[in-house]
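Assess the record.
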Amino acid sequence: MSTHSPDSQHPPGSGHAVAVRAERRWAIFVSALILLMLAVIVFSGLHWAMMPPSRVETIDPSRLQLSGEFVEDNLGSAVEPDGTVVVRFIAQQYSFTPQCLLVPADTPITIRATSADVVHGLLVTDTNINTMVVPGYVATLDTRFDAPGDHTMPCHEFCGFGHQAMWAHVKVIDKAAFFEQARQSRRLSCVSR
């Protein structure tokens, strides 16, 4: 029985020895790369709290319009007693209610949405707003629109045969004009202008 390692059977300059060294280097490199990616994921998740915003707060989808935060009188944009701007709406086959959201520019905004029936997708064009709206849960997003403008908000999750027609409109107006309208009306939408 030989006491030599398998590498000792091949001279140091042979092709086999070179291949073994190259394989070890690549294995170390790939292992380090995997560990680096895992570290970035853990750091992002813990330090920046980059977690999915939905499926945290539950709600009964069969009672949305009967009582609570998502009754029809509470939908749309509102300035809360503490001065924050909250936008509430419901996604349902095949529309968003309200159909047009009015929001102020250069102001922190909290968007709260839920679904009355199936999974819908929420995407506001030209922004980073993108989430799923799941029945039984409230999706909460904190955002800010830098400047006045118009954005479309299509549903980007297939929700049935009328899915292609499901979209809403987000109108961003001047901050002062928004708060002036908010003094005159408790809930704001594009039609209240």
Confidence is low (pLDDT under 50) at residues 50-54. The chain has two helices and eleven strands.
